[in-house]
Design goal:
It contains 20 helices and 22 strands. By secondary structure, it is an alpha+beta fold. The strands form 5 sheets. Strands 2-1-3-4-5 form a 5-stranded parallel sheet, sandwiched between helices. Strand 14 and strand 15 form a beta hairpin. Helix 8 packs antiparallel against helix 9 and helix 17 packs antiparallel against helix 19.
Length: 636
């Protein structure tokens, strides 16, 4: 917590209760200042003027009530901490307050909980603010990326191979360059397949390799009007877990450049005409002396030198000094007849730097071993690409922030629980009790241990669900033997619960093939949660049966049946809803937080598995899980 004093509005009609609350906070040396109000008008006024960090509010006041104060607070701020502080409150009212946005409620009789509730509420508010800020930054960076890509002159695209071949995104510049609209390629990806691969027959293949895909290439694209456009491609192939998933790329229209180069090859006469009239800067230099031999008018205007000045210079004079070594190395090591290089830096007469793409061709000019160079100014495109990369980097950092947040929360919650349990164990080993109290103490320490395990399981469930909600869970899929790594260990893991309830626990294995492809952690969680529920909701001396088999499509199918309390027909529709339970409130017979089956459902989706349930009240429940994903169909 910050050393700045916390600003608290106390909404209370009893001065004595205000003083008692203040005393509890001071005892814990929490720095704070406060104002006291007891009616709605004063409360609204202090919200705007005092700008509080926390609201401490009695539920019932003569002219006002806590629920009204809570609604007003939530209109003022969605994350301002609000704690109900009341003499008494029934369970239903407390639940309604928490649903309406209260952070906690404290019974005045137990006001010693107040300092910890205040600290916890402030920490919750801080976490929410940080999360909102991270999400805001992510949205802003995504909007910047979208703006840049929508206005780019080049074609920017993302092609996905799952669940079927399709373009996920393609920029509007596709229409200007090819005549096809964005919607044309979304409807029929084959129209743009040449951007991905130059082998049309790979479209119908069930599997495709990286050898079939283009990374850097120049292709001749047939436009919608049947004319051609030369496109220069730069693709990045994404291979998560070694499997081709997407191709991200940029296609630049170099039709004019290619046409110029082809025309230059036809004859020297055609070359001279195109050289002097070409809209791109062009020049010829001697490969031995590096001196300029000829230069066109566009280059003169572009670089700012006169023709006479050019003919006294070398190719090194239009490069920044620090780039000259790379230029000389390129000339020495790359002597191909035709060469295309990207993003060279050229320097104009006024000292300004531009980024250019250079296409060059070696030929004999008179008696000189020379090279013809065509220059394309790509400064704006280069700067736009840099901005796109920066926007992508920011988006990835924002996503990583979410993942780090979950890991930090897990550490911060588990650490104090571990400290508590370590000291409970120390107390258990050292405390001296009379023989009459031994049984009582054993029950007490056993209850503490059970409660600790319950808290840890609840934390695990909440954090796992949070990981799935924010997209931070990354499944690591592989082929593994379900029997060896999961099924064979279940009975031993639940041995104590099975023996305590004297359950009849059995397997029926109708297959010898237990191979399954998926994320082993989440698949294990599916099975453990279902078995744990079957044992928990089955009365003493009941039965739990597990059946493993292959269905008619050779899919591994697991059935977990019990003779337990069953599920009502009305509740079956909500069984996979987070925090949902058939029996609610403190009077319910079974512990739990309603997250187990919600996680089971989400983990089934992650592994492309199907889950069904049938049950009848008082007669038991049966869950069936069918694993339909295999390593082969995941590669298609």
């Amino acid at each position: 917590m910050s050393n700045e004093p916390i600003k608290i509005i106390v909404v209370e009609d009893s001065i004595a209760d205000v003083e008692l609350a203040i005393r509890e906070l001071k005892k814990e040396k929490i720095p704070f200042v406060h104002v006291h109000v007891d009616n709605e008008d004063d409360f609204i006024k202090q919200l705007n003027e005092f700008n509080p960090d926390l609201i401490l509010c009695d539920y019932s006041l003569p002219t006002f009530d806590g629920m009204s104060a809570l609604h007003i607070t939530r209109k003022f701020s969605t994350h301002l901490p609000f704690i109900i502080y009341t003499g008494s409150i029934d369970e239903a009212t407390a639940v309604n307050c928490m649903k309406a946005g209260a952070n906690d409620y404290i019974i005045k009789q137990f006001r010693t909980r107040l300092p910890m509730a205040v600290i916890s509420a402030l920490e919750q508010s801080k976490v929410i603010k940080e999360k909102e800020l991270a999400e805001k930054k992510l949205i802003e960076s995504e909007e910047k990326f979208r703006t840049l890509s929508e206005n780019a002159e080049d074609i920017i695209y993302r092609f996905s191979f799952f669940p079927e071949y399709h373009f996920e995104y393609i920029s509007p510049s596709i229409l200007k360059i090819t005549g096809y609209s964005v919607e044309d390629l979304y409807k029929d990806f084959k129209l743009g397949w040449l951007l991905i691969s130059n082998k049309p027959n790979t479209i119908s293949k069930e599997n495709i390799s990286t050898n079939d895909l283009l990374t850097e290439a120049t292709v001749n694209f047939t436009k919608k009007d049947s004319s051609s456009a030369w496109l220069e491609l730069k693709n990045v192939i994404k291979l998560p877990n070694g499997i081709i998933s997407t191709v991200e790329g940029i296609a630049r229209d170099i039709t004019k450049t290619m046409e110029a180069q082809l025309a230059l090859e036809e004859s020297e006469k055609t070359y001279k005409m195109m050289f002097h009239d070409n809209p791109h800067p062009m020049f010829v230099y001697d490969l031995d002396s590096l001196k300029f031999i000829d230069v066109n008018n566009t280059a003169i205007n572009f670089y700012g030198y006169s023709r006479e000045e050019f003919l006294q210079m070398t190719i090194k004079d239009i490069r920044p000094v620090e780039d000259v070594p790379a230029l000389l190395e390129n000339i020495e090591t790359h002597n191909e007849e035709y060469q295309n290089t990207k993003y060279w830096r050229h320097m104009k007469k006024d000292g300004s730097i531009v980024y250019v793409d250079v296409s060059s061709h070696s030929f004999n000019y008179g008696n000189s071993n020379s090279r013809l160079v065509l220059v394309t100014d790509v400064t704006q495109r280069y700067l736009a690409e840099q901005k796109l990369l920066e926007a992508k980097d920011k988006a990835e950092k924002a996503d990583k922030l979410k993942t780090n947040f979950l890991a930090q929360m897990s550490h911060e919650i588990r650490t104090p629980i571990n400290v508590i349990m370590n000291f409970v164990g120390l107390i258990k080993d050292t405390v001296m009790v009379s023989k009459e109290d031994t049984k009582v103490m054993e029950i007490a320490f056993k209850s503490i241990g059970t409660a600790n395990l319950r808290i840890i399981r609840t934390i695990d469930l909440i954090l796992n669900m949070a990981e799935l909600q924010v997209g931070a869970f990354e499944p690591k899929k592989r082929t593994f033997n379900f029997y060896d790594e999961v099924l064979s260990k279940v009975e031993n893991d639940f041995k104590i619960e099975i023996n305590n309830k004297k359950l009849k626990f059995s397997y029926l294995l109708n297959t010898q093939n237990f191979e399954v492809y998926g994320d082993d952690y989440s698949i294990t969680q599916i099975f453990v949660n279902l078995v744990d529920n079957a044992i928990k909701y089955t009365n003493a001396e009941g039965t739990v049966k597990i059946i493993a088999e292959r269905d008619t499509q050779n899919r591994l199918t697991l059935t977990i049946s019990d003779s337990g309390i069953g599920i009502s027909e009305e509740y079956l529709n909500k069984i996979f809803t987070p925090f949902s339970q058939e029996e609610m409130g403190y009077t319910r017979r079974f512990e739990g937080n309603g997250l187990g089956l919600a996680l089971v459902k989400r983990y089934c989706e992650v592994n492309n598995a199907q889950i069904t349930v049938c049950s009848k009240k008082g007669e038991g429940t049966t869950f069936k899980v069918v694993f339909s994903e295999t390593e082969n169909n995941n590669e298609n």
